[in-house]
Amino acid sequence: MASWALLLFGVAVGAALLSRHSSLTFRGSSLLGFTAVALGMTSPLALEPHRLMLAAGAGPDAFIGIWNLWWTRTALEEGLNPFFCDRIFAPVGTSLALHTHAVSYGVLTWPLQKLLGEGPTSLYPVYAVIVIASFALTGWLTYRLARDLTGHHEASVLAGVLFAYTSFRFANTVRLHVLATEWLVLFAWAVVAFVRRPSPLRLGGVVGAGWLLLHGSLEYSVHGALLATGLVGAALVRRRARSARRAAGSVRPWSAAALVATLGLLAALPFALQLRARLAEGGVAFDPGLAAHFSADVVDFVVPNPRHPVWGALTEPWTAALHAGDSGYGLSLGLVSLGLFAAGAVTVVRQRRGRTWLAGGILFMALSLGPDLRAGGTVLAIPTPHDALTTLLPFLGGSRTPLRWIAPAGLCLSLVAAIAWSRWRSRPDGGQGLTRVGLGVIGLVLFESLVAPLPTTAVRIPDAYRVVAETARAAPKSRAAVFHVPELPPREKLLYQTTHGQPLVGNVIGAIPHRSPSADATLRDPARSLLLREFSRPGWLAACPPEERARSVATAQDFLTRSGVRWIVVSRSAWIHEQRGASRHSVLSPAQAAAFVENLRGLGPVRERSVGEETLLELIID
Questions:
Q1: Residue 551 gets which letter from DSSP?
Q2: What is the pLDDT of residues 327-371, one digit of tens each?
Q3: Which one of 122, 252, 281, 580 is most buried, counting C-beta atoms within 10 A?
Q4: Within 13 Å and on the Cβ side, how many CA atoms surround 617?
């Protein structure tokens, strides 16, 4: 009941502030209005900040976001490059230049993280703030961009709602680098402002927005670069050569512009250095089959919202049928949105205004279809722009998720609708409020995109990792790596690391797919396989002939010493976190767990303690 109350209250307050008929209207009320709507539409996240919203497919991807926030803070406080991490794949470490890092969020929330303290439970509220702020800022920044393009308040509010509350964004609340559409809008707005009237200050706006976009999402950086190219190209085509030269020459003084650009390059230097080193190592391409799998189907755009509280149970199976049983795609554009765009496209073509956004929307939608055009799950023998673009720009071939082109497509479509709406309703209104018709359409858009109340999950951290953290705090300058027996799911291991803070030895490939090739060194080590395989056999070490036993012990000890391992966590069961809860699943039989503990004791002096479902072995290091 509280969730629905927050939903209704947030939307009502937001509508009052955005309507401009209210006596509450004041400077900044538009931003506050979009914030209120965001609080309602993401309900009950604001009421349950210590739970995670695992409301999309691959919900535990949120753990990667939590880890990203933790590592960015750790790197900043220790003076390290956040794009290289020596705390995973220890002792080698790995480059994070191609990882889905979302450093912008980590930097901007650093003060809040410091205020709330350490550990994942303090990071959960930060994550909640980011999700709510992303919806609010995406809506408000789209509103501001549309306001610059149309001068029409009602049309601009409509644009903000259309883009912020899409099925695609709700499907990616667990992936911060995909949720971060606000940086894409901010960058587009900065480019539009600079193209209209170039100046050093506006160039600084482009550089700053570009930094946030680059460090927020690599994919959206590519999308933004392509969008900016189209906007600048269209502006130059519209202007005569003389006016174009005059506009370009208005950037004065050149020294100020050069300083702005230089500062921007320096700010991006940590990423650029790691990206250069990472690309030189090779092994950066995904399996081409992934691009086909993570592509949109034409029918995706018209299937009603598969997470809707009213009809979601009916339409979710339709979405799953299009994607091999996976209903987590969420690419529905909404029938109201599609209708507005279709009608708006006609108006834009006739009025010869906003055609760049129209062309961008069509192109980006086509790119989201990936290398194969599919309709209703059937591949059609029709070429798509995806292959042509990846041939022209080969680095785009490294993307495994063409469907994410739907983000810039959604921005363009919302702006087309706003431009057309401003023509339909009136001339630029000079600040008038929302009409009943406008409120009705906005209400329909919000209802059609509704996902709330969103399911939240209490994410549990085994107590063994808190014991490691407490011991580590007693000796803050020493590092003691953690080794898991058996290997746990990569996302969970990263989440637990935000509690204990120590280096991880082992496999987190599922969470860090584009790791440095050198990071595989410890995974290929035969001693690691020996520990994970042979040590699970009851009585194995004691039954070995003396020479073989001595050799096996020496091999295992050498591996643990080289890797800096002090802690070995033997887990009899593991938490499996799903969209609507968490449960324990056995990962070792009682005999296997006992065998691991028995054989590991043979490696030398250990301090052993049982903590919940885990046995914690601390190697006594002289």
A1: H
A2: 778 888 888 999 999 999 999 999 888 899 999 999 999 999 988
A3: 122
A4: 23
Domain residue spans of the chain: 1-89+101-179+434-459, 185-284, 291-428, 463-619
Residue whose C-alpha is closest to residue 331's, from 278, 399, 409, 276: 409
| Residues 6 or more apart whose Cβ sits within 8 Å of residue 530 | 552, 555, 556, 559
373-397 pLDDT, tens per residue? 889 888 887 888 887 777 776 655 5
Q: SS3 for 44-74, per residue?
A: CCCCCCCCECCCCCCCCHHHHHHHHHHHHHH
Q: Is 227 helix (H, G, I), strand (E, B) or coil?
A: helix
Backbone angles phi and psi of 175, in degrees to 5 = -125, 100
Beta bridge partners of 505: 483
Beta-strand ranges (E) seen in 332-383 are 373-375, 378-380
Q: H helices of 109-199, where?
A: 110-116, 120-150, 153-164, 167-170, 176-179, 181-196
- For residue 38, give the H/E element and its range: helix 29-41
Q: Which two tokens stand for residue 2?
A: 């509280």
d(CA 109, CA 131) in angstroms, rounded, equals 12
pTM of the model: 0.93
Q: Is 620 helix (H, G, I), strand (E, B) or coil?
A: coil
How many angstroms separate the CA atoms of 78 and 166, rounded? Answer: 39
Phi-psi region of 94 (alpha: psi -120 to 50; beta: other; left: phi over 0): beta
In terms of Cβ atoms closer than 10 Å to its own Cβ (0-12, 13-18, 19+), residue 250 is exposed
